[in-house]
Design a protein that fits this description.
Strand content: 15-25%
Helix content: 25-40%
Shape: globular
Radius of gyration: 13 Å
Low-confidence stretches: none
Strand order of the largest sheet: 1-2-5-4-3
Number of helices: 4
Length: about 110
Amino acid sequence: MNIVKSKRDLEHVMNQAIRLAISSAIDRIEIEYLEDYQATQHGWFVVLEHTHELSVPIAGLTFSILEKLNASEIEYVEKCPHACEMYITLNDTEGVLIYIPDRIYSSLGINNP
C-alpha cells in the first residue's frame, strides 16, 4: 500500500498511469485553490499493491476498504482505464482517494462500480 500525502511520495507509486493520475489531481488542486497541495487540507491518496490490502486498515486508520464497501460508506466508485477509484470522506475537510489497480479490483467480483 502506498500512501501519497506529498508530491515526493509519488516516486513510490510503481504504476505509471496511477502516478500520473495522482500527479494531475494534485496539480488541479494547486491551480484551483491557488496554494501548495496539503494532504490534511485537500485530502490524500492510497494506492493498493496487493489483494490482502483490501482488508487491512488504511494508513493507520481504524477501518479497511472492504469494511467501508460492505457498510456502503464509500462516497463514490469510478472505474478508470488504469484502476478503480474510491473516495472516502474522513471529516469535514479531509478525504482519501483510493486507487485499486484492475488486477486487484477484479478480485472483488464486482462487475460495475
